[in-house]
Amino acid sequence: GEDVEQSLFLSVREGDSSVINCTYTDSSSTYLYWYKQEPGAGLQLLTYIFSNMDMKQDQRLTVLLNKKDKHLSLRIADTQTGDSAIYFCAEGGGTNAGKSTFGDGTTLTVKP
Amino acid sequence: KAGVTQTPRYLIKTRGQQVTLSCSPISGHRSVSWYQQTPGQGLQFLFEYFSETQRNKGNFPGRFSGRQFSNSRSEMNVSTLELGDSALYLCASRSRLDNSPLHFGNGTRLTVT
User: Fold this and answer.
1) pLDDT by residue (tens digit) across A76-105?
2) Fewest beta carbons less than 10 Å away: which of A50, B42, B89, B110?
3) Which residues of A touch B (CB under 8 A)?
4) CB B11 within 8 A of CB B70
5) A12: buried, middle or exposed (CB in 10 Å: 19+, 13-18, 0-12)?
6) Tell me, what's the pLDDT at B78?
């Protein structure tokens, strides 16, 4: 079945860039998503990319997609302490459009 | 626009009881999905409803059921609760039945003792 994998932890200094990586298996995925979860909250949609795109930029966020390697990354520029959270990569269901498969999440810790 | 609203935020139940969780989607969204989030298993898809019909179902036992009403609001029911059902239950809505993104509520934290 579909699978999405991410590294579990990332620690950066405030002001540095953060890069969170993700690999997925379902080549029929047409959308790939990044969500953010803060303690005690649900998942907040950060950004998403259509599978025919290589890159998408949205303010401090840059998403890169390598469809050949099924690799997705999220770069956060000028990382702030408020960016500390769990970040989830998800693929948009592909042939099973009714559900999404999520990675286990990357815990980003931003040190002052 | 108001976001996805889930009630209640917290629930404490005893093994063997049943529980009903409620979700109101974003206005105009007709698809509602439910996910279970636990530290061990991560985010697991339960089911999705669209126009009062279940469209997809995850690998959960029959104790987990749901329904959707004509106003798109959805409820999820868990019967004969087990300790392992303790989790954060997240509801998400989307505008269409394609790969449009899910918008999540803040979840219901269920604790089974």
Assistant:
1) 999 999 999 999 999 875 545 557 889 999
2) A50
3) 29-31, 33, 35, 40-45, 48, 88, 90, 92-94, 96-105
4) no
5) middle
6) 98
